[in-house]
Amino acid sequence: MKNENRVLPVTTDPDTAPFWAAAREERLVIKYCEECDRPIHLPRAYCPVCRRRSDVWRDASGSGRVYSWTIVEHQVHPGYPTPYTSVLVELADHRSVRLLGSLPGRVPLVGGEPVQVWFEHLENVTIPQWRLVEAGGA
Amino acid sequence: MTDTWKPDTTAIVGIGATDFSRESGRSALTLAAEATLAALADAGLEPSHVDGIVRCDMDEVPPVALGDAIGVANLEYWGDVGPGGSAPCAMIIQAMAAITAGLATTVVAFRSINGRSGQRYGAGYARDVRVGGRSAFEDYFLPFGMQTPGQYFATVAQRHMIEYGTDEQTLGRIALACRRHANANPAAQMHGRTMTMDDYELSRMLTTPLRLFDFCLETDGACAVVVTSIERARDLRQTPALIHSAAQAGGHDAQPGQMFPALLREDITTWSSTDVATILYRRGGVRPADVDVAQIYDCFTITTLIQIEDYGFCAKGEAKDFIGDGTLQVGGALPINTSGGHLSEGYVHGMNHVVESVRQVRGTSTNQVADAELSLVTSAPTTGGSALLLVAG
Ligand SMILES: [Zn+2]
Q1: pTM of the entire structure?
Q2: I need a surface site. Which of A19, A55, B70, B78 has the fewest CB within 10 A?
Q3: Domain count, chain A
C-alpha cells in the first residue's frame, strides 16, 4: 500500500522506537517494568510505581477485545476516507494496555468483542492494526 | 491532605468580552486587547493599574505582548498555566496565587482565539507529516485515524454508553439547555436560533455517537477578567465575585500528552474532575447540593455529562436518570451554561464560562438564576482540570 497522505509515526523516538522496530518484524511488543512485572504503557523510561528505569520489551499475544470505538463520518484528513471505524482495543493478556486500530467502513461493533492484530506494511513503516475474529474462525 | 486555603480573600472585579463570530477580522492580539480593555473599564481600572497577566499556553498572545499593546508599563508578573480547556479557572488561581504571594496586585487573565477563521481544532492535527516523539505519543493515535477532539470524545461517549447504558437523548438534553440559554443571550452565536429534540436527533452524525449539535462552535473571540485582593475589590465599581474556593488536579494515572493518551487511563469515563471536585468542595466547605448555578466546560455534550457526574450532582453512570427535560435549564434543578456555553454561545476555550459565572453572582446574566449565591465554573479535560466557586461580595 502506498503511503500517500497517511499520517505516519516517527520511528526514531527514544521512548517508542522499539515498538515500531518490532512492528516491522510483525511483532507486537509492550514495555514492562522488570521489578513490578507490569506494563509501562505508554512506554516511558521510568516505572511510575517503583521508579525503576526499565528497557524491557515483551511480546504480546496479539489477541484483544473491543473497549470502545467511533465511526467517523466527517472526514478531516485526505488520507483517511470516511466512513471508517476507529477502534480502541484492550489487549487480552494485559487488559490495562490499549491500542488504537482503524477498520474501513461502518463496522457494527460490540463492547468486549474479540479482535486479532495484523500488520499493515506501508513503504517505510509497519502499522499494527486489528481485525474482528470471525465466528468459528481463529 | 490539609491546606491553608482561605476563602474569599481575592475576587474577580472586571469582565470583558469581544463579539463571538466566525470571522473576527482582527488578530488574536487585537481581540485580547479589546477584551482586556473592556474588563478594565468594567472594573473602573486603567491599564496602568495592571501589574500581572496570565494566559493559557495555547494562546498566540504572550503576556508581555498584551501588556505592551494596551500600555501596561509596570508588568511585574506573568504566567502560563497549561493547555486550553483545562486552563481558565487555573488562570484565575494563578492570578490569585500571585496576588496573595505579594507578586502582583491587579492581574488580568485572558483567552483570545481565532478558532474559526484561524487554526480550527476540528480540522485535525496532521497533513503528510510524521507524528510522535516530543513526549506526546501521538504516534500511537494519529496514524490510526484518531485525529480530532471530536473523535476522541466520541470514543469516550461510546464507552460511557457501553458501561452505563447512556443514551443519545441525554446528550441531546444538554445541547437543548445550552441552546435555550443562547436564545435569550444576544451575544450568543445561536441567539434566536431555536432547537428541538427532533432537530437534535436529525442533525448530521459526525463521529458516532456524536452529532453536529454535540459539538461546540468553533469561534473567533476573546474574554478577559481582572483579579485583585478583596481589600482593593471593595473600592471598585462592581460587586466583586469572591473566589470562595478554587482547585486544580491532574488525577492519578494521568498518562502523558494533552488528549489522546487519556484513552489509556484505567477508567476513561471518570476524569480528573473528580479530584478537582473533592478539593474544591473541601476548601469551600460546601456540597454539590449547595451549588445554585454551574458553568460546565462543554467542548462536547459528553464532556458536560461526565462532569455532572464527576462533580457529584448525581452518581457515576446516572446522568441519564438525573438529566430530565428542563433539569439543566434556568428553573431546573441544576441550571448550567446560562450564556449558552461552548455549544451555543461560542468557544472561547472556557473563558466565557468564567465571565458568565461572574455575571450570575452579580445578578446580571441574560438567564439569571434567582437568588444565585454559589456559582460553580469548571475547566476541563483532558490532561487535568480546574474549577472555581464564586460568591457575591
Ligand atoms: Zn516498577
Answers
A1: 0.97
A2: A55
A3: 1
